[in-house]
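Changelog note: in this version the structure field was regenerated for every chain. One regenerated record is shown below for reference.
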Amino acid sequence: MDLKMPQPLLSVLDSSAPACASPATILLVEDEPVTRTSMAARLTRLGYRVLEAGNGRVALEVAGRERPDLIIVDWMMPEMDGPTFCETLRRDPTMKSSHVLLMTSQDQPAQIAEGLVRGADDFLSKSASKQEIMARVLAGLRTGRLVRELEVTSAQLESSMLQLEAKQAEMDADLQSAASFVRSLLPRQGNPAQGVTLAWEYQPSLTLGGDLFDVMAIDANHLGLYILDASGHGLAAALRSASLMTFLRVENILQMLGSYDPEQVLFEANRRFPLSADGEYFTLWVGQLHVPTGRLTYAAAGHSGALLSPVQGPSRWLTQASLPLGFDPSAQFASSRVVLQSADRLFMLSDGIYDVPSPTGEFWGRGRFQAVIDAGRARSLCATIEACFSQARGWQQAPHFPDDAAVMGLELAG
């Protein structure tokens, strides 16, 4: 086959072969020696590396070994024809993206369709002009290069995704470990002092939460109580809350202040935990319970308060109007007192338990929460707290809360 071309097209084709990069490899599969030799010579002169095969079986071996950039295969060949070669090649996962140009002396529509269906990427009649043949070679090389670049990009993306997944799994494990640590800081349920029962439920909106609480023995007769709420939620809020929990430990407060007086605790906490540069802050409710008499002294810094559920009569909120921690370094926090009777219950909670919206946007609210507490007098302390969470989830029709939700309950022995 004579492949002489006009000089302008020849210049274009010659310039397509990169001068400094490795030359593209073309596998030429043609059983007719003259045609094969002529085309191979022309492709070589254009700067390509040309491999030759006289039939499909030999071509499969060469393709598997050399991974050519383009395969030009004749339709009619002994042992294995072009379409069968295409089908066999496509079954090899490593060769699925190889660009195959199928040549034939016939160009009937049915034959073209068959060749493309059986795995060819392009179809070229042997009666085509020399310019068309070489233009299709260039187009095939360009397409094959794009496909390989896509494969490389896909492999890189897959590798990056695997790395991200591994990193995410590592971060999730770290978060779970941190969540376990934070949960270990919460008080043990049961009996923190003789005649006092403690139960609680806690569900952070994310893996880590910033609404934390504790009940601690100050001495043989007194318990220190608090519940704090960090603005925001997640890792940052949890880390800030853990820092405040460390400050609120009994041994630390007694060493600094000499007592666990709630208003002094809040004054010192307000001084040590100012409003952050990002506007993050804490609300805090602190109490001290004299167990033998049931006398509770409490103070609040911007917190929604605790709920006292007496054995007789309706429940009532124990709260005070005040700023959150850090808004005013000179702020004073006044204590209030109340006496708990036998079988009275005290619930300390974060607003995340009742600030849950229904699908229509209506909040469950403090009133509904309080009604569950009042209706739970016949249940155990633990069952009453569970009912609060159950009804809050039912109200929002979702298992997870939009903000951290915590309820801690104390009951004096009846």
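Spot check on this record: DSSP finds eleven helices and 16 strands in the chain. The domain at 185-412 is CATH 3.60.40.10 (Phosphatase 2c; domain 1).
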